[in-house]
Design a protein that fits this description.
Length: about 140
């Protein structure tokens, strides 16, 4: 990412309201991408996962698009159905030395934070995120 982007993001993250919204979107999007990649990697369909959870397939779709806010308990149950568990690590919202993939994710969310975001597709290491203002691809 360019220095201009990083400087602007760091400046905006000083605003507590922006930082809260940005942090929320980063968490939901990171889980959505992780869940989709894990589900597909394990050979599950959304319907398979929904049956394992005792929920509707549409709820799994919402989880995978970041359009719902699951409890930590539901996150744990969802991953358990896939034979996985949650492992977490707290990292700065923006830093000078973030991995390249975090920069793309942060940059996409940064530009889309004021619009309604929807992940429309995840394939390999690529996810497409759509906002009401623009379409952004994460690689």
């Amino acid at each position: 990412m360019s220095t201009d982007f990083r400087e602007d993001l760091n400046r905006r993250l000083k605003d507590p309201e922006f930082a809260k919204e940005f942090g929320s979107e980063v968490a939901k999007t990171a889980f959505a991408v992780t869940l989709t990649k894990t589900r597909k990697g394990k050979g599950f369909t959304q319907a398979d996962l929904a049956r394992g959870l005792g929920v509707k397939q549409s709820y799994v779709a919402k989880l995978e698009t970041g359009n719902t806010n699951p409890t930590l308990g539901m996150v744990g149950k969802t991953l358990a159905v896939l034979g996985m568990r949650l492992e977490t690590e707290a990292t700065p919202l923006a830093s000078k030395e973030s991995p390249k993939s975090e920069h793309r994710l942060a940059g996409s969310l940064y530009f889309g934070i004021y619009g309604r975001r929807r992940i429309s597709r995840v394939a390999g290491n690529r996810a497409n995120v759509e906002t009401s203002r623009r379409f952004i691809a994460l690689a």
